[in-house]
Design goal:
Oligomer: single chain
Number of helices: 40
Number of domains: 6
Shape: globular
Protein name: Bifunctional uridylyltransferase/uridylyl-removing enzyme
Pfam family, one: GlnD_UR_UTase
GO molecular function, one term: [protein-PII] uridylyltransferase activity
Radius of gyration: 33 Å
Strand order of the largest sheet: 3-2-1-4
InterPro entries: ACT-like_dom_sf (IPR045865), ACT_dom (IPR002912), HD/PDEase_dom (IPR003607), HD_domain (IPR006674), NT_sf (IPR043519), PII_UdlTrfase/GS_AdlTrfase (IPR013546), UTase/UR (IPR010043)
Organism: Caulifigura coniformis
Largest sheet: 4 strands, mixed
Structural class: alpha+beta
Number of strands: 16
Length: 897
């Protein structure tokens, strides 16, 4: 009797029974897990009992065949678990990786038919399958050309069938794929894991994939793959026995394996499906489930994630060591190394990319901190880094070294910090080997320290290493940042400040203040002069201030600029603070640095440099006005047949506030001047332009109509929100002759490739109707609501609502800072309350989320007076806080449906 596609499907009762077997297995595993069983034990339990189900279901299929056919299939075929299934560790909803192996052409058709039916049975039972049907020769041939197949066969384990066939597979795989080409095989394994580079991704993700992210279970598998290829050691204990792992490393890897497996199983059970991504919601849930408690300085979830990243760091450090110690050099690389290598410091050998030494000299090269720093200084001078085997020797030596730092070692460390190009790689090496923690013990606190917020994308230690890399890369900048970097005389102080800028995080106090205290101690430890130590500690103390002022304050305000200059002190410190700030913002994450922020920061740098260099501010303002007038005139000369003379343009610009001239591109200023020339006192000009580079639309509103101007800011914000636009930025300006120029930069999510002209015109019509009271914002909201659409879901809520009023920074205006969750309708809600309080918004800075979501408003009373009365300040603060508290709890929902 044969099995073919025409066989009847199994009865519904059999399908239900098979599915129930899988459900009951997962329920028993869940009970074990909830009862406190270790994650690895639960994974093994699932694998063993899933094996039994697979074998039983396969044998049920074979039972429909004739005895002769069953006997032939059993003698000449096998069911082999490969990949994760072969390792004997399963997460609850992992795919099953099976290889159906056949050796005889005569039974191939019967075998394949049986496999097809078995595969369908597995799927019907609720087991997701990844499978292949091959012969031994096919499997081996494919493994030689496909690293994914090769690594899956490392874990091969027979479930059913011919022992001799399975032994033939493992023997031929070992001989033809591994032993005949071990270096190539290892390289294939590395590329299978890290296709973009031999060292894997550069940094840890804050929402990691427990299986696939850097330091995840896949990197643990890589260690096992390489161990199998070189020592036939398939597990951690075997690697320890052959001496490739120290006892401490073996314990650390086992702990990491258990922790990550536990988390992965938890994720699967919670989702009811395969789910390996540790999102922020899941971080909070698992933290609570594990009963992890907060400390005096860390939230409970931060404690949990610090444990996670420390386990991941152990895995990735050892995986990188294994991958590089046995990495095959190309013949060209070997020839280049031989041709260009030369000796340094007697025992060292320098090649084009690394510094190395014969293993027999490792002891004397790592005998003390001075010897190690001499090695790093040589690497810095040659622009290379230590070889991975030399780094491994340093790592093994560091735990036994004294913790004191001699002046000689400190001096050599400062020599390393004076370099630019090799510094990021050398610092990462010093961090990985533990050397940095001897030089700066306080840095140990930041290792794997997580900031649980939505802006920083790296742990504190990784953010610091990224900031150093960003800072040294500024030497290639063609603008003011590059010029500032080139002008810094003592780069070791700048680079040290970058290393220390966030070292104060995680202590429950403002981290800049804690960092200042630590920087003073580090300066003394490294033997810096009093003046040099003061520069480093001042940079750490003030490292947030430049971004705060540039992104949230009106830098045309003389008082703001004067106070900032007083804090900075000297042009030298200003140069370094400018570079530190740029590097810090860039290292927050890929989207943190924008052209807009670069311009604001450069503007503040220029203004402050004029102040600190002794030049009179009034003279500089005239130069700036003249330069802007020249640029605007150049734009107008292209666009207008009979352009306005430059002197006349300069007079026209005098009516604008300095903040407008600083923040508006000359092309936009020229366009605004042309609009202002043609509109009369009653008109409102509204134009929208799509920018494909940023995928945003800018709506510019210009009017001198006094009836329209009153309350226009909150009406415009409301109308844009009602039309489902996300407001990213808002710039408002009022000229001395009473004309308003408001600009809103928005994201129109209804159009992925940019809105069509009719959409932009429709939005402009809505803005005009609201300004002239032909339609109110509430009606516009109702007409544009989308029912049945889920509101955007906030991943987590950890930032407290804050409303602060600053009556000191500006002589003429009161500053309102609103720290709140960024939801649709936020800007409209704030601006409505400000309007109802009888305040006029003179300047707004929106979407300035350097370290928190914050909207900033410069306000005056409707009669133009600055708010100074303490009672009035308290009233404004309490009213805004109450309104925004309601908005944050429930009020935002009306803007999301």
């Amino acid at each position: 009797m044969s099995v073919g596609s025409g066989n009847p499907a199994p009865p519904a009762s059999a399908l239900a029974a098979n599915k129930q077997r899988v459900v009951e297995l997962r329920s028993r595993a869940r009970a074990l897990f909830d009862g406190g069983a270790p994650g690895v034990a639960v994974a093994i339990y699932l694998a063993e009992h899933t094996d039994q189900i697979v074998i039983a279901l396969f044998e049920e299929v074979l039972a429909t065949l004739s005895p002769e056919t069953r006997e032939q299939i059993a003698a000449h075929s096998a069911v082999v678990a490969v990949g994760g299934t072969g390792r004997g560790e399963l997460a609850p909803y992992s795919d099953l990786d099976l290889l159906f192996l056949s050796s005889r052409q005569a039974i191939d058709s019967e075998f394949r038919a049986a496999v097809n039916r078995a595969v369908q049975t597995f799927w019907d039972a609720g087991l997701k399958l990844g499978h292949a049907v091959r012969t031994v020769s096919e499997s081996v041939a494919l493994a030689k050309g496909d690293p994914q197949i090769a690594t899956s066969l490392i874990e091969a384990r027979k479930l059913w069938g011919s022992d001799s066939l399975f032994r033939t597979l493992t023997r031929q795989f070992r001989r033809r794929v591994v032993d005949s080409r071990p270096k190539q095989f290892i390289r294939d394994c590395i590329l299978a894991r890290w296709p973009d580079g031999d060292d894997g991704p550069p940094a840890q993700e804050l929402e990691p994939d427990v299986k696939s992210s850097l330091g995840g279970l896949r990197d643990l598998h890589l260690i096992r793959w390489i161990g199998y290829a070189l020592f036939d050691a398939r597990d951690i204990d075997s690697l320890r026995r052959v001496g490739e792992l120290t006892p401490a490393e073996a314990i650390a890897l086992r702990d990491a394996w258990e922790f990550l497996t536990h988390v992965r199983i938890d994720l699967h059970f919670a989702a009811g499906k395969a789910q390996d991504r540790l999102t922020r919601d899941e971080q909070l849930r698992i933290t609570e489930r594990m009963g992890i408690q907060a400390t005096a300085t860390q939230r409970a979830v931060e404690v949990f994630m610090q444990r996670y990243f420390r386990h991941a760091s152990v895995i990735i450090r050892i995986a990188r060591r294994f991958s590089s110690l046995y990495r095959k050099k190309s013949l060209r690389r070997q020839l280049n190394d031989f041709a260009f290598a030369h000796r340094a410091d007697r025992y060292l050998r320098v090649t084009a990319k690394e510094i190395d030494a014969p293993p027999r000299h490792f002891g004397r090269l790592t005998k003390d901190l001075e010897s190690i720093m001499r090695l790093y200084r040589a690497a810095a001078l040659y622009g290379v880094k230590p070889s991975r085997r030399l780094e491994d020797a340093i790592s093994r030596a560091v735990p036994e070294l004294p913790r004191d730092v001699s002046l000689q070692a400190a001096s050599m460390f400062l020599d390393v910090l004076r370099q630019s190009q090799p510094l990021p790689a050398l610092l990462r090496s010093m961090y990985d080997t533990g050397v940095i923690e001897i030089l700066i013990p306080e840095i140990a606190h930041t290792r794997s320290l997580m900031q649980f917020n939505q802006y920083h994308q790296f742990t504190v230690d990784e953010h610091t290493l990224q900031a150093v890399q960003r800072c040294t890369a500024l030497q290639a900048d063609k603008g003011s940042l590059g010029a500032a970097y080139a002008a810094v005389k003592h780069r070791e102080l700048l680079h040290l400040a970058v290393i220390l800028h966030d070292i104060g995080k995680g202590f429950g106090r403002p981290h800049a203040e804690v960092g200042f205290e630590i920087a003073e101690r580090v300066a003394r430890r490294l033997g810096l002069s009093e003046s040099a130590g003061e520069i480093v500690s001042r940079l750490v103390l003030r490292h947030l201030e430049m971004a705060h002022i540039a992104f949230r304050r009106d830098i045309s305000d003389p008082e703001t600029l004067l106070q900032f200059g007083h804090h900075v002190g000297t042009p030298e410190v200003l140069q370094m603070l400018y570079l530190l700030t740029a590097a810090d913002v860039q290292a927050v994450g890929p989207s943190a640095w924008t052209e807009w922020k670069a311009e604001l920061l450069a503007g503040l740098y220029d203004e402050a440099m004029v102040l600190l260099s002794g030049k009179q501010q009034g003279v500089h303002e005239e130069e700036r006005l003249h330069n802007i007038a020249r640029q605007v005139t150049e734009v107008l000369s292209v666009d207008v047949p009979a352009p306005t003379p430059e002197a006349e343009v300069e007079e026209q610009l005098r009516v604008f506030p300095a903040s407008y001239l600083l923040n508006t591109p000359p092309s936009s200023i020229a366009a605004d001047l042309l609009v202002m020339k043609r509109v009369d006192q009653q008109e409102v000009s509204i134009e929208g332009h799509f920018n494909p580079e940023t995928s945003t639309v800018e709506y510019r509103v210009i009017t001198a109509n006094p009836e329209v101007i009153r309350g226009c800011f909150h009406k415009l914000a409301g109308a844009l929100t009602a039309r489902r636009l996300q407001i990213l930025a808002a710039d408002i300006a009022t000229t001395k002759n009473g004309m308003v120029v408001d600009a809103f930069r928005v994201l129109d999510r209804d159009y992925a490739d940019g809105p069509p002209p009719e959409r932009i015109q429709s939005i402009a019509d809505s803005l005009r109707d609201v300004l002239f009271n032909r339609e109110n914002v509430a009606t516009l909201f109702r007409r544009n609501r989308r029912f049945g659409v889920e509101p955007p879901r906030t991943t987590f809520a950890d930032l407290p609502l804050r409303v602060q009023l600053d009556t000191e920074s500006s002589e003429t205006r009161t500053i309102i800072d609103v720290f709140a969750h960024d939801r649709p309708g936020l800007l409209y809600t704030i601006s409505c309350v400000i309007f109802e309080l009888g305040l006029s918004v003179d300047l707004a800075k929106i979407a300035t989320n350097f370290d928190q979501v914050v909207d900033v408003f410069y306000v005056v009373e409707n009669d133009g007076r600055k708010v100074v009365d303490p009672g009035r300040v308290r009233q404004i603060q309490e009213t805004l806080y109450h309104a925004l508290g309601h908005f944050d709890r429930d009020g935002h929902r009306i803007f999301s449906s």
